[in-house]
Structures are given as structure tokens and as C-alpha cells.
Description:
alpha/beta
Amino acid sequence: MNELIKRDVDEPSRPLIGVRLLLVEDDLLVSMELEEIISKLGAQVIGPFSRVSDALDALRREVVTGAVLDIQLDGDTTLRLVDVLLKRGDPILFVTGTAPGAIPPRYRELPRLTKPFDPAEFESSVRSIFGRLLAAAPRRD
């Protein structure tokens, strides 16, 4: 049976099994909430990381299929991470309190949720953005 069909039959409530998401967020409570929702959907969380250097190290040693990122981290930004992820073709979802006008123009078209966010809206965004990864995966019959 096709693995994607089998997964959907076996795990309809966990549609992101097989997705590995880098999570970068410096607010502990927010990162816990994001991690819980991502895990509930079946994706594996890489992180969470609260420092850009730690997240960059993880990208060097881990395979990820996308990322959920805050933009501002305690005086630093995740834009170096974004550049690496975009170069690799990995989708990104910003979850941030950064005002849209403060985001450099070349990053403004990336999907973004504003903090505070509605958990249902976050879940919907994650399903939409990262669920496409599985739909586009090559079929293995």
C-alpha cells in the first residue's frame, strides 16, 4: 500500500508524520505550546532552540523539512537561519510579535502569524504549509 495512503488510514489525526520541523522561539511558554501542537499533528520537533547559534548547529547535523521561527530572539534575529532554509528550499512559518514593517522586504512574503496567535490558526497554518511537503513527496508503492 502506498505509504502516504497507509499513513492517512492509520493516523488520520496525525497528518504530518514524517515531517521534521525546526522550532526556534525564545519564550518558553510559547515554545511549549508550539511544540505541543506540532507534535499533536505528528511532526517531529527539532528543538526548540532559543538561540540562533544553537539552531544553526542543529541545521548542520539534523535533517529538517521546514521551520517555525520567531524573528526576534533576545537581541538577535533568525534571518541567518531563514537564508539557509530558503537556500535549501525548506518552507518557513514565522510566529512573531515583530511588526510587518520591521521585517526586511525580502522576507515579508513568507507566511507569518502574529503573536499572540490563535492555536487553531497556528494548527491550520502548519497543516497547510507543511502538509504540502507530504503531498509533494514521491510515491513509494
